[in-house]
Amino acid sequence: MSWPSLNLLGQAILSGIFIGGLYGLIGLGLGLTWGLLRQINLAHFGFVFLAAYLSYQMATEWGIDPLATLLVLPPLFFLAGAGMQWLLARFEITPFNSLLVTFGITVVIESIIQGIWTADFRRLETHYNDQKFTLGNFYLPVPELLTLLLSVAIAVLIWAAMRYTDLGKALRAMAQDGPIAAAFGINEKGMSLMLAGVCAALAAVAGICLALTFTLAPSQIFAWVGVVFAAVMLGGLGSALGPLVAGVIIGVSEAVTMAVTAPSWAPIVSFSLLIAMLLLRPDKVGR
Amino acid sequence: MNKTVAAILATGALMASVPWLGLPAFYESLLYLGCHWMVLALSWNILSGYSGYFSFGHGAFFGIGMYTSAGLSGNLNWPFLWTLPAAAALAALLGIGLGTVVFRVKSVRGELFALLTLAITFVVGTIVLNTRIDGGPGIYLNAVAVPALGPTAPASLYLMALAAAVLSLLLAYRIQYSKLGIGLFAIHDDEDVAEVMGVPTFAYKLIAFGVSCALAGLAGGIHALFVAYVTAGETFNITVPLTVVLMSVLGGTRHWAGPAVGAVVITGLLYYFTAGNNPVAGRAAVGVILVVVILFMPNGILGYLGKARRKRSAPARPAAVATAAPAPPAPIAQVALRSSEVLLEVRGLSKAFKGVQALDRVNLQVHRGEILGLLGPNGSGKSTFINVVSGHYEASGGLVIFEGHQLTGLAAHRVAHAGIARTYQIPRPFAHLTVRQNVVLAAMFGGARVSQRVAEHEAAQWLEFTGLAGKGEALPDDLNLHQRKFLELARALASRPRLVLLDEVLSGLTPGEINEAIELIRKIRDRGATIVFVEHVMRAVMALADRVAVLNHGKLIASGPANEVMSNSEVVTAYLGAAHA
To answer: Which of A34, A106, A229 to mutate to test the interface with B (most CBs of B within 10 A)?
Structure first.
């Protein structure tokens, strides 16, 4: 173990914050469906990657600006998410079985991606890739910065909506006790469809950010599951800001671990953190 | 020998002859994979399917086994067969160590347990990758000699996996119908109630976890030689746990053979598609099948078949019940009624929930053979009293002495073994066990701890006693509230308790049903049990209680004969409030 220079450490922390923003963005939709609809939606990761590939396709093959895909893909994914929710609600599925069904859906999505774009790595090359700001000695690459800003903006927006609008209050009431909320005039079915749609749209946004910042391969879908789950559980199910905060904490601790020891030690940080939280403060996790 | 055991062994022997039939080698590899997944799925199900603790950490235990065998044979040159017991033992050790910590944290259940075990997988994987166990490049087993069990190396590997599969099937079957299995199924439905009824939940979960991990380690050990090249990335990932969960759920987690059926189906499907020209489409097809099966058969293939069979045989049920001869219930205990002997004594018993003092230094004696009514306004601490005495809550202070033995601080199942049984105000039957199984379980695990055969016999008597004889094969959900309350009673009585704690058995019943219940409680006492009952129905209290005790704000404010106590001014104030001057 060797202590890196202050400069290197600062850059590591910065990149940790950036990746943490992406963890938070992916985790946001996952945590909302888990906390409010009691569904463990693995298909969320499938949606993220599908959106990433679609944005890649539109940008490299059809020459559309990747940011413009932000206007097209989320509405499409809203429909897909609502459709999946309709199916799950139709069969009154238990939380654990939702995990299995959405795993099946993810496998199907993975196969579709592999069928269309092959198993090779794909990289979205745009003019954004080379743009970066410098702040003192530190580099701020534009795609990462954009991801973080989007992640923070969306999380705050959702937090405010959940807290201050009637819709948000209705959602929270529904999550606490669906039948009772329904007795007070909340349209449980409609709300669930809408929420699931919004979460899928969030997956699309996260997917576009992923395409901007990472190399894509279908096999990578499951590589994100563990760490994003950790962010969601640490941040609290159904919380809007929690996954982002937890994501940044995990991202920074991973980046610092990588800088101080070897990159291959990185996963141990988030997962040890999660295990410690589960064992020492179980009442704080996942509620 | 049992028919099922014989069938498993015979099938195993038959399958063992395959290598000598002269089939192409790839059949042996396919059969190997079938057996391999069978072991993993069956082992997963022993903890997760039976007890409901869904583990996503099977990859970790499988991986430990894999690395143990790979390291010992590849790096230290142990003969391969000797590495397999080590692989199983190390995996079991990790599982038991983990369980000792995790199972103590009561709220880590359900999805939290799934997540915790998943996290363990990645932690173990990272440690293996970064230490000398692996170190990065992986371990090659090309130089390791395959034990010559069959005519060729693939055949030998297949025979090893087959032996492991037979072992797993036998264990899964044996455990499901053993006392351990019955206890695990009770934990699945309601762990707190299982503990209160005498199931040593912690020990049972630990045993199940140990067996499950040992088998996974064994499968991993054999697999190390099969793949001949072990890497951390290919081992400690989410594929193994997800595949295993998928197979078990597909086959049915409540049946010992369910995971084996699922393993055969999925392995076959994957083979069928990868052998064809389009492996990607094959993978997609597996995904679609998973979705369709969960949506239309949420209980798995065997669960679905079992249900269909029960439906077909349903009309025959009432006739079968009618032929059962009604036998008089055995006396609970042979003792003189209403002696002056102290059966239960609590001294200075206190229980605080953060700021709320639910019980405040309560002193109370219960005499053998009496019926004591425990009264008090809502929130006065009556239910807490029952929860503390039955061991569900740990007392914050004071002593509970039963038949001269200290019970304070004992786990709830030990309290049940001492001879105390309770009922719940809102009935909490084990939802997936039949009415009869609910009662059998109480007899097997409670104070009496009789064998399964005796328990079956006694359960029939107690069902007769409580008027539920015709409902033995129904699920608790099919009962009405009145019947569910009586099921609570039957469960409490089946453990042959010396002390029964009844928590508002009468609430929610119609006047006619209350009369019936009062008669039943009298009969219970006449059979020798001592009864403490919490009740709001004053008519019943007056009719039944030899003595009443009144709690208010956690303090005992009065005790004595019912008529005296009810005219006590402090009691009147507690119920009706102080008169304004």
So the answer is: A229
- Domain assignments of chain B as residue spans, ordered by start: 27-249+256-261, 342-576
DSSP B108: -
Contact criterion met (CB < 8 Å) for A107 and B287 = yes
Q: How far apart are CA B502 and CA B195, in angstroms?
A: 17
Domain locations along chain A: 14-120+140-284
A286 has pLDDT over 60: no
| Identity of the residue in B107, B123, B284 whose CB atom sits nearest the CB atom of A108 | B284
Average pLDDT, chain B: 85
Interfacial residues of A (vs B; Cβ cutoff 8 Å): 40, 87, 91, 93-97, 100-101, 103-108, 110-112, 114-115, 222, 225-226, 229-230, 233, 262, 264-268, 271-272, 274-275, 278-279, 282-283, 285-286
Domain A14-120+140-284 has CATH 1.10.3470: yes
What is the architecture of the domain spanning B342-576? 3-Layer(aba) Sandwich (3.40)
Q: Which residue among B105, B237, B289 places its CB closest to the CB of A282?
A: B105
Smallest CA–CA distance from B292 into chain A, residue: A101
For B209-267, write each residue's pLDDT tens digit.
999 999 999 999 999 999 888 888 788 877 788 889 888 988 888 889 999 999 998 88
CB contact under 8 A, B112 and A286: yes
DSSP letters for B226-278: HHSEE-HHHHSSSHHHHHHHHHHHHH-TTSTTHHHHHHHHHHHHHHHHHHSS-
Q: What are the chain A neighbours of B246 within 8 Å (beta carbons)?
A: 100, 103
Task: Using an 8 Å CB-CB cutoff, list chain B residues near A100.
Answer: 245-246, 249, 290, 294
